[in-house]
Amino acid sequence: MRPGMTRVLRKISLRLGFERDWYLYIVAAAIGLMMALVATLFIAPLRGMELWSEARSGQMLLLWLVLLAPCIGGVIVGILRAVIHADDVGPGVTTLMHAVLRGRSRISLRVGLQKWLGSTSTIVSGGSAGAEGPIITIGGVLGSNIARLLGTRSQNTATLLGCGSAAGIAAVFNAPIAGVFFVMEILLRDFSLKTFTPIVIAAVVASAATHGILHDSAIFDVGDGFMGRDDFFSLGQLPIYLLLGLLCGLGSILFIRTLSVTGSLFDRMPVSKIVRPAIGGILLGLLGLGWMLWLQTGDVPAFYGNGYPVITQLIDPSTYFQDGGHETLNPMGELMLLLLGLFLLKLIGTSLTLGSGGAGGMFAPSLLLGASLGGALGLLLEWMGWLPHGHPAHVALVGMAAMLAGTTHAPLTAILIVYEMTQSYQVIMPLMFAAVVSTIVARSFNRDSIYTSRLRKLGIHLGVMSDLTILRRMRVSDIALRDPVVVSENDPAQVLLDMSVTKGVRDFIVVNDHGNYAGMVTSDDLKSALVYRDAIPLLQVNELERSNLPTVTTDDSLDTVLEKFSRNDVDALPVFSAEDVEHAVGLITRNRLMQVYQIELEKEG
């Protein structure tokens, strides 16, 4: 469907009384169906490898694969990078954000193909990464290219990109609400109804279609009996989840910085980018072999792959107790050492995998890190008798959301993902509390999320959810104004040229015989007059002044000032106090307005 067809559809819709871009709803539904199929195909080899490795548990072959498979996967990723020249700027979600912010939401099909094949190779071979980041990227690429084929406007291109990404995460997690808010909170940073509606359609269709194909959640869910107690959360438990939020906030900072340092170390290696993923794979293989020898186990290391089977164990109460009644804890020392060791090795393993250039997402590692840290805290509290309601698995579950919120700086998405897995309202309050605390701690020490740190290096600064809110909450009085240079409308025009030279100004306030504001002579007016320099001695100021320019008061919000600038091609506007609209107190310049905006944007980011 080309631009001509798009125009025909728009004309038909207007005649029928529909909205101008009604066809986006149909396209969004189609994207949802396509992403359900894509997600199923993407997840199939990952599930197949999990089943295959479980069947080989205890065999010598598995030991060799644990050592060598990550390196082989790294070699494949390097070859794919050499063959498929994709123009990306980092991890998949970061690449999508860059496309939305700087690339008119257009992204090459090669990016999606490389991420698909590369992440499958990485995760199947044991690389410590998640499946959700690649599927979000694949969905975004699909939506962007469908928009290109339709010939949509740039705003609608971003919307369809968001539809694909939301559909991807909804299909993977069976969490359509989380998919929608991930896109709105992280990718598009836009909660307008026009954008929201098609993204909701895509996410719901994708989730329903995936459930129809797989007949279960595409990755994992929580059992029906998980939230068995009505008094799971109470006021007395606030300190527990405050502590959990603090720990996960600090843990997320450690994760982000470890990943950044590891990436910098690999970047400084005097080897090609194509070789680096294989080096990261070798180091991961040695780590995995050490894990197996330490535990004397024949199973795949818990920090290999996406880690979802391990998360399922960590949020299973039977992991922490010896009996079905959840009365007797497993040996405290061994289990605590195992949980903390898992946290540390997953952090190192993910940093080696992704820092070296391996492909994959960061959602899954964040969830596993949070579950292991939360499980360790819950185990300690249960052993001390300070966890009267619930059990360590509850704390592990909340830890997943808290860690994810800290690493992504997106608490709403983190809360909704974990909430939709449990389908229990009982868990929502501790999720909200711990996730917000973790985000506050993470942002206090690390202004960038795991996605935006790369963007900042490229000179791209993100503000709050809607950057325009920065301008709405600031007033003209918050800006240093330029002192007004006043001339009388009866002065000869030569005065303007003389003052322009002596005072270095280009914009002048014009007053009448009573000293009241009459208009302005702008820099453009002065430039136009200079074309006929010989006529200037014959002109007066009132022949150059503009009396129809909008004025500004010190109480005006900056968004209204920006709107006035957008409607008038001038560099400065006169400013008056709210009590006196006859005598200008200064000039506000377009340049100064944007400087203040960038400063505030930097603070918010």
Topology (SSEs and partners):
Elements lengths: L2 H14 L6 H33 L4 H24 L8 H11 L6 H16 L7 H19 L3 H20 L2 H12 L5 H22 L23 H30 L8 H20 L12 H7 L17 H24 L7 H22 L7 H17 L2 H12 L5 H18 L6 H6 L10 H5 L13 E3 L5 H10 L4 E4 L5 E5 L1 H9 L20 E2 L4 H10 L4 E5 L9 E4 H15 L1
Parallel strand pairs: 1-2, 4-5
Antiparallel strand pairs: 2-3, 5-6
Helix pairs in contact: 2-5, 2-6, 2-7, 2-9, 3-5, 3-11, 4-6, 5-6, 6-7, 7-8, 7-9, 8-9, 8-16, 10-13, 10-14, 10-15, 10-17, 11-13, 12-14, 13-14, 14-15, 15-16, 15-17, 16-17
Labels describing this entry:
single chain; about 600 residues; mainly alpha; Clc chloride channel; CBS-domain; 3 domains; 3-stranded mixed sheet; 23 helices; about 60% helix; about 5% strand
Short description:
Helices cover 62% and strands 4% of the residues. It is mainly alpha-helical. The two termini are 39 Å apart.
Textual characterization of the structure:
The protein has about 600 residues and is mostly helical. It has three domains: about 5-215, Clc chloride channel, CATH 1.10.3080; about 235-275 and about 285-340 and about 350-465, Clc chloride channel (Orthogonal Bundle), CATH 1.10.3080; about 470-605, Roll (CBS-domain), CATH 3.10.580.10. It has helices spanning about 5-15, 25-55, 60-85, 90-100, 110-125, 130-150, 155-175, 175-185, 195-215, 240-265, 275-295, 310-315, 330-355, 365-385, 390-410, 410-420, 430-445, 450-455, 470, 495-505, 525-530, 560-565, 590-605, and strands at about 485-490, 510, 515-520, 550-555, 570-575, 585-590. A three-stranded mixed beta sheet has the order 1-2-3. A three-stranded mixed beta sheet has the order 4-5-6. The protein is elongated. The protein starts with a helix and ends with a helix.
